[in-house]
Write a structure and sequence with these properties.
Blueprint (H helix, E strand, L loop, with lengths): L1 H29 L3 E4 L5 E4 L6 E3 L2 H9 L6 E3 L17 E2 L2 E2 L1 H6 L4 E4 L6 H9 L4 E3 L5 H14 L3 H21 L6 E6 L13 H8 L2 E3 L13 H7 L3 E4 L8 H6 L6 H4 L3 E3 L2 H4 L6 H17 L2
Parallel strand pairs: 3-4, 3-7, 7-8, 9-10, 9-11, 11-12
Antiparallel strand pairs: 1-2, 5-6
Helix pairs in contact: 5-6, 6-12
C-alpha cells in the first residue's frame, strides 16, 4: 500500500509540474499572429513583433522610426540620413542594388521593401531565404499615416505610431483648410534636370501642389514622373517653378532657369527651392515640406 501511495504521489507531482509549464506557455500558445496587409496587397503574418528590421529605402527608415520601431532597425541603405541615429546603422548598399550577403549576415526578421525601387530579382532571392517582407509604398497623404500605423503594429509600438500618424493627419488637414480657397497659381515642379522630369497630379507631390492651391501645368500627363522637354515648360509659362536639386542645399537647377527671362516665374522671381527629402520621401516630414511649398505659392500670389 505504501509503495502505491508513493507512485500516486509521484504521478501527482508530475502532473503539477506539467500543468505549471503549460500555464507558463499559455500566453505564447494563445497569442494571435500579427497580420497586416502591405501596399502590394499581400498579407504578412508574424508570430511575434519584429526585432531585427532591414529598411530597404531611406523613406522606409524614416517611417519605421516614426512608428516607434527605430531601435529594432539593424540595416539601412544609402542616404538613410534621417533621423540622425539612422546614419550610424549598418548600410547594405543602395536601394537599387543591395549587398545581399551583408544583409543576410545581419539576420533580419523583417525587411521593409520599396516595391518600385528595390530590384525584383534581389527581392525574390530574399524570399528564398524565408525573410518576411513587407512592401511599403505610400502614394497618398493618408497612405503615409496608414503606413506608420501598420509598421507600429508590426513592431509592437502602436501607441507611438498612432500618435505620429494622427499628428501628421491633423497637420495636413489644417494646411488643406488654410489654402482651400486660395487663388490658383500655375506651377512647374522639377524632379530632375537631365533629362528634365516633373510630376503629374497623381504623384504625391502633385497632391501637395493641389492642396496648396497650385495648378500643376503637367497634371494631366499619364506617367507619375514624366520626362518633358524645355519647350514644354516655356510654352506652359508657369507663375512659379519649384525644384529640389541633387542635394539638400543645391540650388543650381533654379539658377539655370534665369537664362529664360521670358518666363513669368523668372520675371516675378518665383523660383523656390524645396529640400528634396522633405517632399520626395513619403514620410511624416512631408508635412514640413508641404508647409514650405504652400508658403512659396503664397509668396508667388503676393507678387502678382
Amino acid at each position: 500500500m505504501h509503495q502505491l501511495f508513493v507512485r500516486l504521489r509521484g504521478l501527482s507531482a508530475w502532473h503539477v509540474g506539467l500543468t505549471a509549464i503549460l500555464l507558463g506557455l499559455a500566453p505564447l500558445l494563445l497569442a494571435a499572429p500579427i497580420c497586416v496587409v502591405d501596399d502590394a496587397q499581400r498579407e504578412l503574418c508574424l508570430a511575434a513583433p519584429a526585432q531585427r528590421i532591414a529598411t530597404l529605402s531611406p523613406g522606409a527608415t524614416e517611417l519605421v522610426f516614426a512608428a516607434g520601431g527605430g531601435d529594432r532597425v539593424v540595416a539601412v541603405v544609402a542616404f538613410s540620413d534621417y533621423p540622425p541615429e539612422a546614419r550610424a546603422l549598418p548600410s547594405v548598399g543602395g536601394h537599387s542594388r543591395l549587398d545581399l550577403e551583408r544583409l543576410l549576415t545581419l539576420q533580419p526578421d523583417l525587411a521593409i521593401v520599396w516595391g518600385s525601387g528595390n530590384p525584383a530579382e534581389q527581392m525574390a532571392a530574399l524570399e528564398d531565404f524565408d525573410i518576411p517582407m513587407f512592401y511599403l509604398e505610400p502614394n497618398s497623404i493618408e497612405g503615409i499615416s496608414q503606413a506608420i500605423e501598420r509598421l507600429a503594429r508590426l513592431t509592437d509600438s502602436e501607441a507611438v505610431g498612432q500618435q505620429a500618424a494622427q499628428q501628421f493627419r491633423q497637420g495636413m488637414a489644417e494646411l488643406a483648410e488654410q489654402y482651400r480657397e486660395a487663388e490658383p497659381v500655375t506651377v512647374f515642379y522639377q524632379v530632375w534636370n537631365r533629362p528634365l522630369m516633373t510630376v503629374n497630379e497623381a504623384h504625391l507631390i502633385g497632391q501637395v501642389i493641389r492642396l496648396c492651391g497650385g495648378e500643376n501645368v503637367f497634371a494631366d500627363l499619364p506617367r507619375q514622373i514624366p520626362r518633358i522637354d524645355l519647350e514644354a515648360v516655356l510654352m506652359a509659362n508657369p507663375h512659379a517653378i519649384l525644384a529640389g536639386g541633387m542635394g539638400e542645399e543645391n540650388r543650381d537647377w533654379l539658377t539655370e532657369w534665369r537664362a529664360y527671362p521670358g518666363l513669368q516665374a523668372v520675371q516675378q522671381d518665383n523660383l523656390f527651392f524645396i529640400p528634396p527629402s522633405l517632399v520626395q520621401r513619403p514620410t511624416p516630414r512631408l508635412l514640413a515640406g508641404s508647409r514650405l511649398l504652400c508658403e512659396s505659392l503664397e509668396t508667388a500670389r503676393a507678387r502678382r
